[in-house]
Amino acid sequence: MIRDDEEPVGLGALDRVTWALRRAELAVQTLKEQRLRPLGMAAAHYTLLMSVHSEPGLAGAELARRLNVTPQAVASLVARLEGRGQLERRAHPRHRHVQELHLTDAGREALRAADQVIADIERHITEGLGPDESAQLRTLLERVSKTVRDA
Amino acid sequence: MIRDDEEPVGLGALDRVTWALRRAELAVQTLKEQRLRPLGMAAAHYTLLMSVHSEPGLAGAELARRLNVTPQAVASLVARLEGRGQLERRAHPRHRHVQELHLTDAGREALRAADQVIADIERHITEGLGPDESAQLRTLLERVSKTVRDA
DNA sequence: AGCCTTGTGTCAAACGCTTGATTCTCATGA
DNA sequence: TCATGAGAATCAAGCGTTTGACACAAGGCT
User: Fold this and answer.
1) Which residue range or ranges hold the HTH marR-type domain (chains A, B) (predicted)?
2) What is the pLDDT of residue B28?
3) Nearest to residue B139, comparing CAs of A87, A136, A94?
């Protein structure tokens, strides 16, 4: 049996799955930023608004964990979005120190406009792949996430 | 036929392909950073060294384009790696202003150690998926990249 | 009750990257 | 030949994020 690691360092490292993954994600993210810019919104803002929309009333720290960023990063984004009147911070009924996050009407409208752009990109991709391949891809990506998470 | 966009903003946006893509990439990247940290190397350093290894002698600006970052970011990384003695800048024979990038012996050794870690992660993922699914995933990701690039 | 652990939010400093503008070299064309 | 344009590198400034440290509130424990 022939060892395939005689090469001191991986040539052929270019067509690894993780490289393809990185490039695809980078391309998608870049496109999202480009399309979102005319709306005066960054991808991070959209992600945060969408998260708050899907689960209203969650705290900044909890939000930080889900987005895999630090609480300070969330606080920074929240402060900006609050300044625009798209997001509001309310005091938690039990824990006075904690502050729940909720969308304002303006926030919902901004999210709706942004989501139209994002959904359009998503549609373009899924149509390019076809429904079967899209489902396949999503399944495979989920398996990768799970595999990596409990590595 | 029932329209599926009656909802003002995408519920079910959580299981979009691009979200799965983002989460998978984030998980992989995080794992790489964790495993690379004990070696005193960041993922960006590894990527740069690998790029220079696969194509020795290329310029900083060209490298920046391939990695989708700015020339300054590359210059910053190069300066650091040069300080460690893992990378060296030589004057281009024709264009004296341009500087070719080459790996030193220490750089090759550091890259070899780092690549062992990265290859191990790659192996863990591909084994978890199986060879057929791995090839499928890589193909699908390539198609996504291509679809997005000329969007 | 009092202590202590957990979790949240905030401040300050450092780091990394991007944007913008400048300088320098080499190549091309009048 | 000289001028003009394109590409590469560098400097300066600004922004966003991470890291580290601290204060505060609620629940659990002896």
Assistant:
1) 14-146
2) 97
3) A136
Residues of A in contact with B25 (CB under 8 A): 21-22, 24-25
User: Residues B107, B87: contact at Cβ < 8 Å?
Assistant: yes
| Domain layout of chain B by residue ranges | 34-149
- Residue A12 has a pLDDT of 64
Alpha-carbon distance A31 to A120, whole Å? 11
Domain B34-149 has CATH 3.20.20.370: no
Interval A57-73: pLDDT, tens: 999 999 999 999 999 99
Q: Identify which of A18, A30, A124 has the shortest CB distance to residue B122.
A: A18
Å from the A90 CA to the D27 C1': 22
CB–CB contact B144 A24 (8 Å)? yes
Please check the confidence at residue A13 and state whether its pLDDT lies above 80.
no
Of residues A134, A17, A23, the one with CA closest to residue B148? A23
Q: What is the pLDDT of residues A73-127, one digit of tens each?
A: 999 999 999 999 999 999 988 888 899 999 999 999 999 999 999 999 999 999 9
Predicted pLDDT of residue B118: 96
Phi, psi values for residue B102, rounded to 5°: -135, 150
Fold (topology level) of A40-149: Arc Repressor Mutant, subunit A (1.10.10)
